[in-house]
## 1
Amino acid sequence: MIENRDAGRTPVTVLGLGLMGQALAGAFLRDGYPTTVWNRSAGKAEGLVAEGATLAGSVREAVAGGRLVVVCVSDYQAVRELLDPVGDVLDGRVLVNLTSGTSAQAREVGEWAAQRGLSYLDGAIMAVPAGIGTADATLVYSGPRTAFDLHESVLRSLAAGTGEASEPGGTSGTGGTGGVSGTIHLGDDPGLSALYEVAVLSLMWNILNGFLQGAAMLETAGVGAATFASLAEQAIGTVAGWLPGYAQQIDDGAYPALDSTIDTHVGAMEHLVQESESLGVNAEFPRLIKALADRAVAGGRGGDGYAALIEQFRKPSEARP
Ligand code: NAP
């Protein structure tokens, strides 16, 4: 790892002072980094300037003010509009893009940077603005490891997690599944951060949708969502405990049924569909769950464990909803 001798003093620039950009700049300021900020529209820098930030009059001036340049705006189109004209000033600096987007967009900016000899890290923020700078935040980065190493200590201001940067699948961090928390370099491919971000969002939405489906069904019997929440929380914890075993099966490509078979799951899924339909609540999600499992059974996987359903997720969808 390259020692960052400027730790505590590296000048940082933050482009984009929306809800997230303000939180990022605030975290750098709190840790004592000289911070230059810029935003398209006026007014959003006032609080940060009061905390000691320098407000730049242009993107060019802002970029010139930092060794580490962080951009966090609405989308990649805005990123390109901002950065295309200032490629020359970015030379010799490390650009970290924390704007959400797709892996293809991230790789495109990575290519743009590589063609100009610029150091580019794409990143994804797995936190809300209030979590930035606390142990609740996880930020992942992808792109050249040397660029990450150079400013790792500065980037750690944004996620006070383990205090140790870790590799996914490594041993440091929160648990046996890889300890992914805090400040993480995922690999050299700049598209990895965006992929992890959507993978985690997919997980989050599936869990939340499952909770909402259950809450809607229980509501028909007069059970409030708050009553369901404590049992739901416990169930989520139980499922989380299954992940290492299922992950191993997926990586090994063998899915022995250690607890119950997909055939058994399909029987219970049928109850979920019937219950939803007869209660008059939305049955789309239950039907989709069962349709995927039915396909696995049709493909000869009925006697396997649940992880065999990975094969259904690997394929393009048969029909768009
Ligand atoms: P936001 O509050 O809506 O702020 C958007 C920012 O982008 C503003 O500074 C806006 O400038 C700027 N912007 C938009 N188009 C621009 C353009 N063409 N040129 C220059 N600046 C432009 O959004 P946010 O919550 O800060 O989110 C920023 C990014 O962080 C998004 O990609 C989001 O997905 C990601 N993110 C957010 C959260 C969260 O909880 N908020 C969590 C994870 C990731 P103006 O002020 O001039 O409009």
## 2
Amino acid sequence: MSRAFAKVCSCLALAAMLTAAAAETSRLAPWWSGAIVYEIYPRSFQDSNGDGVGDLNGITARLDYIKSLGVDAIWLTPIYPSPLVDFGYDISDYTAIDPQYGTLADFDRLVAEAKKRNIRIVIDLVLNHTSDKHAWFQESASSKDNPKRDWYVWRDGEGPGKPPNNWQSVFGHGGWQYDAKTGQWYWHKFYAGQPDLNWRNPKVAEAMYNVERFWIARGVAGFRLDAITTLFEDPALHDEGVVKDASGKPVINAFGDPQLDDTRTNNLPEVHDILRQIRKVADAASGKEAVLIGETYVASIADLKKMYGAHNDELQMPMDLQVGFVNKLDVARFRSLINAAETGLGDHEPLLVLDNHDNPRWDRYGDGVHNEDIGRVLATVILGSRGAAMYYYGDEIGMVTTPPMRKEDVRDPVGVTGWPKQKGRDGERTPMQWNAGPNAGFSPAGVKPWLAIPPAAVTANVAAEDGKPDTLLAWYRQLGGLRKTNAALRDGDEVMLNTADTHVLAWLRRTPAGEAVLLACNFTAEPQNVSFDLNALNVRAANVLSLMNTPGQVVPRSLAKMVLKPFGVVILQLH
Ligand code: NOJ
């Protein structure tokens, strides 16, 4: 056998081994490992029937676009019947679809069409509270001895006109609502129209486990568990502490109330017992194919780790909301949070989140000059790090937060209560920008969408960016593809590099087999010189191959000397 032929054979053998290894990895790893989860706010994605509100058929019609991003799963915020006090997070029927969004048949079609494209549908499950119009609450409120009275948290006041204690609603002011008919107060962590369920009552738990079973049988691939840390309250109803500033004065929040410490109504240990049950039900109903994603605003990586369960028996993907919500392009802070996700979660995989329907979009990091490049930096951090990643519809085309200008235009009750200091969440919920035509292609011409189309839609839209290599959309698509095909980006661990650098965030992804990719992002508006010495890491870096680099960025030839343009990014294969 000639040497050349032998070399070809050994390459083929190696390629076959690698393919087999990749197949093995994908067989063993659950589908959500390394997944890209794309959050859709259904009211705002695509209006297919011209009523100004997005719907399920609209999403189905856009599945090919979603597929083009490399998305593995879509998380739909609530689509259940709802009086819309909190735009769907107040559910009045857990096993139906709100007619505004379509029918159960439309939902089944969405699941089936998504499946054809290898995209899974994850739905929101709101367990902490129902709508006050839900039949359970209507019964519960009907009399003190109704069998469902104990399904919610009812208490006597401290005296006439005085609530049971000082607890507050997340959405402003007191969290207890008086009911004149029965002379008691009910607890609502969120709006008064969202009474908290009593999770100490096993019947409540069983009813919700049946909801889980219902949707898994309909083909959902899992749930995003809303406000999951707030299921329990202190049964003794102790007051919460008032947070004080350095001078000892009470801190006043955006609603003008004293800020409370949240210790009696959030993150109580009992939550974990319920998470284990929810997981058992999901595992049994789906043959371990369903994922539980948690809305887990927690104080530290140690608290986040607990959400996976001591025996890996709670959430598979509690959201790591710390990385995406630094709110400032601060290299040291990003580095330490990503490093914490890499080193502080044991064997668990993080789910990094960039933004969502409750918080200003990615442009909160913008400087007004380099926004598009800053968008690329953020996408690289989220999609180039180890683990699963979640971003929000429209981030990929650079949609910006556009809050209403006038109080009379505000739809989110948070903004109604908090105006003008707190303008609410409408700004991050505006309709998807498909093109520069009427209503940005979201609703037909002549229809008034439920929220106004942002002026920026004229330039930031799918049609304007599609097929153009230097756009933000192209960057997202490329990253989405690369993290599936490149072994180091798909399976590699993560090591922070140049950890004293205050301008450039850089990290290495590497597999045990020796594949290595270096990612470097300039977090500043000035060019930065960087070099990397990877000797101590035992990484082969004789050759540097550019996998991706931002528009205008000079492709580096070696690790010894490179210049990153303002907010420039390079992604390099080392070998
Ligand atoms: C978190 C959801 O993301 C938010 O939109 C909602 O208002 C609250 N939970 C209450 O359900």
